[in-house]
Amino acid sequence: MIRSRQLVAVAPVDPSKLAVGDVVLARVAGTVYLHLVSSLDPARKRVQISNNRGHVNGWTSHDRVFGICVAVDGVSRGDAADKVLTAEPNDRP
Question: 56's torsion region: left (phi>0), alpha (psi -120 to 50) or beta?
């Protein structure tokens, strides 16, 4: 669980690699928040997001998921680094 005022590190994410339990940075109603991924719908390219108290906030599309939490207070979060979006060689300046 991430508590208020803890320092988090977020990196761009490949939404197709997300798993239940990942913490993502997503836009909801025009504001960007950290949310817990509680379910996946790969066919419709969306994830269900929830808060850390078990309340389901709803579904959001992959294009509204901007990043994944890779560390909290300097401690890495499991396999989150494996889900970071990397630029293709052609995309680099």
Answer: beta
